[in-house]
Design goal:
Phosphatase 2c, domain 1; 10% strand; 5-stranded antiparallel β-sheet; Rossmann fold; alpha+beta; 39 helices; 6-stranded antiparallel β-sheet; 8 domains; 993 residues
Length: 993
């Protein structure tokens, strides 16, 4: 905040009365919010506000300017935007109040003027509310059981502007979904606290608006001071690492299946592994989505949908689940281990859709269930998993009317299969209805396709061209004219033949050009963009126009689906097949004799995409291209697999060389390295070309990131030799840099320094800006790790403008963190804070989780040294949670040690020893000791804690920390008071007196 901004006003000119906008109009769907200002004076000295901070965090505040007249009213109008700015900056209430108080006291208050305020920052992903107050009464918390309690906000609670340099503290409260907070800027006149609590308790189920109205009615005209009241209820988890639901959005209503929903719900409540089975087209996925949505309230850590239809390799199931949950592969740990750690002590439902191609991964599902007793998994698959404890639910087709004994039109329209047909028909023919004339044909269509939802959709899509009677006749001919008996309807192979026949019938109605496009588009995995469809779906001789008309026709026929330009598609429109239809299209592609040519065009199209992306991954559009490659990852995998299967060495080398930066930046380390090793092993890939050298560089980098120094050096050495033979100076510099970092990790510091300095010298002689900035960064990192701070500082400062010029935000964020840590070590706290704050913003923006966690930890050291313990604690808590998500256990140990140091500053000796003990146990488990400086610091704070406790209490605290799991330790850190309930849920930080 600009401290020259005037918050006080002595000009007596009038201030216009202004109604505050209703926060409910702008609040996200995760909260229910209402507020009101009740003035005691016409000038209006009370204010309220609501801020969506992003990433699932929301902030709310109430304030009253104390004093009288226009000056106080002006102060109220000025404090709100300033407090909004500080809440946005700090993301926590206590440091925001401290900053506003500092500005008020520095500018000097008019006589008798100050501001009473209360603020809350609610994390709707994790269910934590951070609350601070300055001169305002304690907020009230209404629990689900009706209990209403005061939230005990820590001292000091003086109003803003009264005491200079005051550091406010905050209370962290764990909320359950549906619990409500009530904030007031001053005491509510005419209503005792006891009566107020009773009134709120009686308003069971009332909206926040009704609650505010009831409280305001009692207070109206009775208070002597202006009053702002705000009610905030947490109603849904934000989508993110914890909680929420990513269930696919459904554009049509769910027809029938009430009994099936009840049965599936009951099985989910009593079991932990449920598989919905049945052939394609029976509606397994839709039933799973509806059942998961209906049961979502039972899973406090969320319902997460994982689409496995594009997965062709069972080994990728773990990465598919991890991607949905936001878990990244750690550099020194298998992804499965990180995933199991993340799931521990979480009440969560995984929906694994289309598992039939990945049945070899069934042991992974069993392993995840064994790791956490609260986890539940619902699978959709054409076959069951044959896993221990599995409940299998066979999904039947929709209920059919008897075409021989038709009921009334009203009753017929309510039959499940007919109701779905009508719904789909009205989407293409808005005026469609079942009549006496078409009723027999509609019932016959439903019977011919055995009530299969997908087949009904395909039939209904033809109504603009064909009458119901004609569709029925076509289907009778296509399906053999044999209506299945009820006994036969339970035969899965029969239903598979019926669905295949319906798809074939719809396909055969297409003109030849559309049939050609249909089969060629089946080569795509997980869909494609229109540009990709154009490039792969037509040959060079055929490319005399766009294929938009053909694509529209396939979509209209329900053979192809159009996806919106949402987050998954990175803003680009996409089309894709349902997997059952894609399989039929692939059969047609094979039968046509075009398969090899089409798959080759597909592979080379994605080589071109990957090579275009490679240079962009280091520049301004880095985030756009990373997201684009992630969306196309299944197609890129398919192209790589085709190159390997067909011995296409050049194609494989170029694709692997273009992709390894993406695999590195998005933490696909194990998968990327496996692809590169396969490509390097192809016959024909042994020629000593620049393409092979680039793949070797990628294999070396990914091996080094996984702490496989020996393999990394082997790859780098071969790449260096090839680059030297080709006299490729930038390539030589890159290989030397990789060898230098590997040598540093191996402890050969002299060799590392020589290689890194040689790499930098060579990079200065080329026009490769990327190579130069990375050479500077690696040598700077090495010198900083070796304690040579001045050299590191000079190198970082030379690199900084290059990162900015390139627009590489990931590199810039990392650079700013290291510069901030150097400034902190020199005691330049203000410079450190500015550098780390900028780096923190960039890390959030680019989604670089590991860098975000490290920057949070370093920034916590800065603010903690300044006595801002509340903000330091908030930063460390977030750091620890992010580190858990990425599976970085060494980073978690360092964060726990930082928490212990903070606890020492807060004079909490038991907490110091418990956290230090947990960190020591974690380091022993992973085999990574603390560095000399880190070890000295943790020993200092632990020894200080022991001096204030008896030996018995000290040993008990240390032992308690040593015995906690990672999940228990994180829960303990989130509970700032250090009180954890026996069931693992943090105790309420409230008082009822």
């Amino acid at each position: 905040m600009n401290e020259d901004t005037p918050l006080y006003r002595t000009d007596p000119s009038p201030v216009s009365a202004r109604a505050d906008p209703s926060p409910a109009e702008t609040s996200p769907p995760t909260v229910d919010l209402a507020a009101v200002c009740l003035p005691a004076e016409a000038s209006g000295r009370a204010a309220h506000d609501f801020i969506d901070l992003g990433e699932g965090r929301v902030a709310a505040m109430v304030a009253t300017a104390q004093g009288h007249g226009q000056a106080a009213a002006f102060l109220a109008t000025r404090v709100r935007p300033v407090l909004r700015t500080e809440l946005t900056r700090h993301q926590a209430p206590a440091p925001a109040l401290s900053a506003v108080n500092r500005a008020l006291t520095q500018q000097g208050a008019a006589s008798g003027q100050s501001v009473a305020a209360a603020c809350v920052v609610l994390d709707t992903r994790r269910g934590t509310a951070r609350i601070a107050a300055a001169g305002a009464p304690p907020p009230l918390l209404r629990h689900l059981d009706g209990e209403v309690a005061d939230v005990v906000v820590p001292e000091p609670r003086f109003a803003l502007g009264m005491v200079p340099e005051l550091q406010y503290e905050e209370q962290v409260v764990r909320l359950a979904l549906g619990e409500t907070l009530l904030l007031a800027s001053s005491e509510i006149g005419g209503v005792s606290r006891e009566r107020l609590r009773a009134k709120i308790a009686d308003l069971s189920g009332a909206s926040t608006g009704a609650l505010i109205d009831a409280v305001a009615q009692d207070a109206a005209g009775a208070q002597s001071d202006d009053l702002a009241i705000l009610a905030l209820r947490w109603v849904a988890r934000a989508q993110g690492a914890m909680g929420g639901a990513n269930l696919p959005r459904q554009l049509t209503s769910f027809i029938g299946r009430e009994h099936e929903l009840d049965e599936v719900g009951a099985l989910l409540r009593t079991g932990r592994l449920l598989t919905l089975t049945g052939p394609g087209g029976t509606g397994k996925t839709r039933l799973a989505i509806e059942a998961a949505s209906a049961q979502s309230a039972a899973f406090s850590d969320g319902v997460h949908f994982v689409d496995l239809s594009p997965v062709r390799d069972s080994s990728l199931v773990v990465s598919a689940i991890a991607e949905v949950l936001g878990i990244q592969e750690a550099e020194d740990r298998p992804l499965l281990a990180s995933l199991k750690d993340y799931l521990r002590e979480k009440l969560l439902l995984l929906v694994l859709d289309s598992f039939e191609r990945a049945t070899d991964a069934a042991p992974v599902v069993v392993d995840l269930l064994a790791a956490e007793a609260q986890l539940k998994v619902m699978v959709t698959s054409r076959v069951h998993l044959e896993a221990p404890g599995e409940h299998v639910y066979a999904v039947r087709p929709l209920a059919l009317p008897d075409p021989e004994q038709l009921p009334s039109l009203a009753m017929l329209s309510q039959a499940e299969a007919v109701a779905l047909f009508i719904q789909r028909a009205q989407s293409v023919e808005p005026g469609f209805a079942v009549t006496q004339e078409n009723a027999p044909a509609v019932a016959g269509i439903c019977a011919q396709v055995e009530g299969l939802p997908l087949a009904l959709e395909l039939a209904a899509a033809r109504l603009p061209q064909l009458s119901p009677q004609t569709i029925r006749e076509h289907l009778e001919a296509a399906l053999g004219g044999q209506r299945q008996s009820r006994d036969q309807a339970d035969d899965a192979p029969s239903r598979e033949r019926t669905l295949r026949g319906a798809i074939a019938w719809s396909h055969d109605l297409l003109p030849e050009t559309e049939q050609t496009l249909f089969r060629r588009l089946a080569v795509f995995v997980g869909g494609c963009t229109p540009a990709a469809a154009q490039a792969v779906g037509t040959t060079l001789g055929e490319q005399n126009g766009s294929m938009q008309d053909e694509v529209r026709s396939l979509v209209a026929a329900s053979l192809l689906r159009r996806e919106g330009s949402g987050s998954r598609s990175n803003g680009e429109s996409r089309v894709r097949f349902l997997e059952t239809i894609r399989e039929y299209g692939h059969e047609q592609l094979v039968a046509s004799g075009e398969q090899h040519d089409v798959q080759r065009r597909h592979a080379w199209h994605y080589v071109a995409l990957a090579e275009a992306a490679r240079s962009e991954l280091l520049g301004h559009d880095q985030l756009v291209w990373l997201a684009r490659l992630e969306v196309e990852h299944d197609n890129l995998r398919a192209a790589l697999q085709w190159a390997i299967d067909h011995g296409e060495a050049e194609l494989g080398l170029r694709l692997g060389g273009a992709l390894w930066l993406f695999w590195w930046m998005h933490s696909h380390l194990t998968e990327g390295r496996a692809w590169l090793v396969q490509v390097l092993s192809l016959s024909g890939a042994n020629e000593r070309t620049a393409a092979r050298a680039l793949v070797l560089a990628g294999a070396g980098q990914l091996a080094w990131l996984q702490d496989d120094t020996v393999a990394g050096e082997t790859f780098y050495e071969e790449g260096l030799a090839i680059y030297q033979e080709l006299d490729d100076q930038p390539g030589i510099a890159d290989a030397l840099r990789g060898l230098g970092m590997a040598a540093a990790d191996a402890g050969d510091t002299d060799r590392a320094r020589a290689l890194l300095e040689q790499s930098l010298a060579l990079s200065r002689q080329t026009d490769d800006v990327y190579g130069l900035v990375y050479a500077l960064a690696c040598l700077a990192y090495f010198n900083q790790a070796m304690g040579n701070a001045p050299t590191a500082q000079a190198l970082w400062e030379e690199a900084l403008p290059l990162w900015r010029r390139l627009g590489n935000r990931v590199g810039l964020a990392v650079q700013l963190r290291f510069l901030g840590e150097l400034a902190l070590a020199r005691g330049e706290s203000e410079s450190a804070r500015n550098l780390l704050t900028e780096g923190l913003g960039l890390s959030r923006e680019v989604g670089h989780k590991q860098g975000l966690a490290y920057t949070l930890r370093s920034l916590a050291s800065v603010v903690g040294d300044h006595g801002d313990h509340a903000e330091a604690g908030s930063l460390l808590q977030e750091s620890l949670q992010v580190l858990q998500e990425v599976g970085d256990r060494a980073g978690m140990a360092r964060a726990l040690e930082g928490c212990a140091t903070l606890a020492a500053a807060q004079e909490q000796p038991e907490r110091v020893l418990q956290l230090a003990g947990a960190a020591a146990a974690l380091r022993e488990e992973i085999g990574i000791p603390a560095g000399p400086n880190e070890q000295a610091e943790v020993e200092r704070v632990a020894e200080g804690a022991r001096e204030t406790l008896s030996q018995l209490d000290a040993d008990a605290a240390w032992a308690l920390g040593q015995g906690m799991t990672v999940a228990q330790t994180i829960a303990y850190v989130l509970d700032q008071d250090g009180e954890t309930a026996s069931d693992g849920r943090t105790a309420r930080s409230v008082s009822t007196d």
